[in-house]
Task: structure prediction
Amino acid sequence: METFMITEKAFINIIEDTNNITLAWRGTIDSDYANAVMRDFLMDFHEKCKQKNISKLTSDFRGVKFMFSSGIKTLIGWFKLFADDKKYPVTIIYNNKIRWQDVTFESIHMIIKGIELIAKEGSPE
Amino acid sequence: MKNENNYLKLIFSPDWGLIEGIRNFIEDFTLTSLKWAGLAKASALTASELLDNAVKFSSGNRVSLEVVLTPESGEKEEVTITVENYADEQNIKRLKTTLKEIKQTSPRDAYLMKLKIAMDRGMGHKVSELGLARIQYEACALCSLHIHDDNRVSLSAKLLKKRL
Result:
């Protein structure tokens, strides 16, 4: 497992299991700096996933306590990248008891088709 | 405490680094006074997004945040959050346009519309313009704007327990 530090308050654990990759997010993303780091990471990560020809990507957001709106803008842009490319299937795991996650991912799911959405309580493993 | 308004006002420099501390403080302050986590979290989100807006678009070196809690009984509990800052004409115009757009439809549809615009602009676009639509939908906030003669902007959001 690798860990990518977005800031001292937020990080992503990258778990590879054969050809499946899980991103387990944790922390708080609430600044333009954090957003810029996250955006660069996600764009680069998408290219790597395409090159590796991965079978499946799971992105687990249950550990994110707060995300400001610029971060949500970056997320929807990232989701659009893989929805357009259709190179690998994507599953989003979120906690529907946390209001920002419930509202955000349900809304994004209405706009972007082809992404599996799973509501699940608890924290990422 | 139950029959009186709780009130706070903060004046600070428009600095990103202060927003998280203020957001956490507003959540604690609201929770302590009104004893309802849903309203406290909605207040924290609202304060955070309004401050984010003020820090980004302020033309002066002071931003003020005012929070008034009205701890009525039952479903009438409410929180009013007002952020004030100075802004230039272009940003005032942009703010008025955004507010007009998101009030023309339901909070849900306004948020979906803004998300779609953000998606179409792509990851590289600097401004999200999601904040006001988000608090209107996610925090069920009723937003209002007042522009003073000296280009001071007062942006208020009222949160009602019964709407959450």
